[in-house]
Amino acid sequence: MTNWISSVAGFRIDGVAGTMVDIKQYINSVRDSGGANRLEDTGLGDTRERSIGGLARATQVQINGSLNSTTYPIFAPLVNGTSATKTTEIKYATGKYRVGEVYVTNVELSINVGQKSVFSATLDAEYGLSVTSAAAT
């Protein structure tokens, strides 16, 4: 079995016109996390800690990338906040996608002397991202 490498990965998100924009060449990291919470359920007299299944956490995707004429119009307006969602597609390998609607939070634009300008954002998928073999439309 071969390991997946970043050269086949991809990232698309709704652009200003509401159509999916491929920005993979400007993204240098994507972190996709989620899971379920556990609730403390230990009672008096118990000799071990116990927990029960809790609510599923919202999926969070952390992205970092280069700020330029493609990414700035997508992320700069979101620094002020929005209640609108954006469709997002993460491609891990051929036929391996995670797709869904996200709220864009914690947007940061950064300029440093002698370095390229960068951005970062957290994408919150309240209902998770779907695992699919097809790209988003």
What do these coordinates show?
The strands form 2 sheets. Strands 1, 2, 3, 6, 7, 8, 9 and 10 form an 8-stranded antiparallel beta sheet that branches. This protein is globular. It is 4% helix and 50% strand. It is mainly beta and 137 residues long. It is built from 1 helix and 10 strands, in the order E-E-E-E-E-E-H-E-E-E-E. It has one helix at 71-75, and strands at residues 10-14, 20-22, 27-33, 36-40, 51-56, 59-66, 85-93, 96-110, 118-125, 130-132.
Question: What is the residue-mean pLDDT, rounded to a whole number?
Answer: 91
Q: In which range does the helix fraction lie?
A: under 10%
| Major β-sheet profile | 8 strands, antiparallel
The beta-strand count equals: 10
Number of helices: 1
Class inferred from helices and paired strands: mainly beta
The topology string of helices and strands comes to EEEEEEHEEEE
Query: What general outline do the C-alpha atoms trace?
Result: globular
Which blocks of ≥5 consecutive residues have pLDDT under 50?
none
Radius of gyration (CA) equals: 18 Å
Give the termini separation.
30 Å
- Sheet-strand content, in percent, reads over 45%
Core attributes:
1 helix, two-stranded antiparallel ribbon, eight-stranded antiparallel beta sheet, 137 residues
What topology does this entry show?
Elements lengths: L9 E5 L5 E3 L4 E7 L2 E5 L10 E6 L2 E8 L4 H5 L9 E9 L2 E15 L7 E8 L4 E3 L5
Antiparallel strand pairs: 1-2, 1-7, 3-6, 4-5, 6-9, 7-8, 8-9, 8-10
Kindly summarize this structure in a few lines:
The chain contains one helix and ten strands, in the order ββββββαββββ.
